């Protein structure tokens, strides 16, 4: 028997298990998934939890519920990967050999990388919302917070879901309006980028929205430290931004097992071919989702599109056929703008978000880079799609893995 080993049972790893089990002969292939956790979290919902739009129980389910029949689930911590011996060591001492390895270990926040971020203010007046515990703690804080300087801050790129910090500050604007204390809150968006987003057209659109909502922008801010005593963040040039409540996105890094294995870059992301998703470590090692260093958005939609292409490439690899260079960096994201509206953006390696219609060219019904209620409902509907379609490796109707250029207005 040969083994295909998947490291990680998050979004990407779970999808790969569901894609591959029906396509590999169970008499010939064992498929094993390793993850130290027992709970699967709907991470896009962390954005809504601080504002009471979701309850905690709506965002988590048992991992085993989504692992398909015929796939071995091993609940252990990964110690290290040894490409030379085609094996993975687990924390309890067990070693698993593999013929094909899929690294889907994701990314995680690393607040320890910024001086003072884990200081005495952590989860008292300094919060993250990229973790379940962080989002819950922030919800509790916002329930009683009376106002002041609220700063939403991005430490550095890349991060999971690059639009989420913007969504948070837009939702905060709506939240405080509904509470009747918006006039008591100053909102500031602090980013290491030169604008609101990573792509010029979207940056212009989102920059206007920040202005309309009277949200101050501080750009090109490379954080050096969090000064807990004076309640301010300080960049390497000496600029300071004061806060009463800091909602920060700490540096995002790949799993520590990647670092222990000595196979990642400086941020523990796995060097991966942008188009085939085969790693540069060894031919029988592939990577997907947030674990890779490909220059695509670290978002669930990207992992979904990658999974379709990676599945075919793994089957080709097993058969000894050339891999297809088909992944184009496609990302598709709803971006909450507050007041029951959202934008939809669709882009890839070569095309930035543009105006147009989605998913049907010229018809829609969704419009790109345009605020609407239907986009907001699309964002909320995604939770059902995630649990019932995405994780189970089922295709999303009318949405292709590669970006469809039809119906989009390119300049």
Q: Count all strands and give the number.
A: 24
Kindly identify the CATH topology of the largest domain.
Answer: FAD/NAD(P)-binding domain
In which order are the strands of the major sheet placed? 5-2-1-9-20
Q: Write down the CATH class of the largest domain.
A: Alpha Beta
**Total of helices:** 7
- Provide the residue-averaged pLDDT: 96
Q: Could you say what the CATH architecture of the largest domain is?
A: 3-Layer(bba) Sandwich
Task: Quote the beta fraction.
Answer: 25-35%
CATH superfamily descriptor of the largest domain: FAD/NAD(P)-binding domain
Residue stretches low in confidence (pLDDT < 50, at least 5 long) are none
**SS-based structural class?**
alpha/beta
How would you characterize the largest beta sheet? 5 strands, parallel
The separation of the N and C termini measures 53 Å
Radius of gyration: 21 Å
Shape: globular
What is the total number of structural domains? 3
| Fraction of helical residues | 10-25%
Multimeric state: single chain
How does this structure look, described?
This protein is an alpha/beta fold. It has helices at 11-20, 132-144, 164-179, 200-212, 256-261, 300-319, 373-390; strands at residues 2-7, 29-34, 39-41, 60-62, 71-74, 78-82, 87-90, 95-97, 100-103, 107-109, 126-127, 148-154, 185-190, 216-218, 223-227, 232-235, 240-242, 245-249, 252-254, 285-287, 331-338, 341-347, 356-360, 364-368. It has a 5-stranded parallel β-sheet, covered by helices on one side. A 5-stranded parallel β-sheet has the order 11-18-12-13-14. The chain has a 3-stranded antiparallel β-sheet with strand order 6-7-8. The protein is globular. The mean pLDDT is 96. It has 3 domains: 2-109 and 253-319, 3-Layer(bba) Sandwich (FAD/NAD(P)-binding domain); 111-251, 3-Layer(bba) Sandwich (FAD/NAD(P)-binding domain); 331-390, no CATH class.
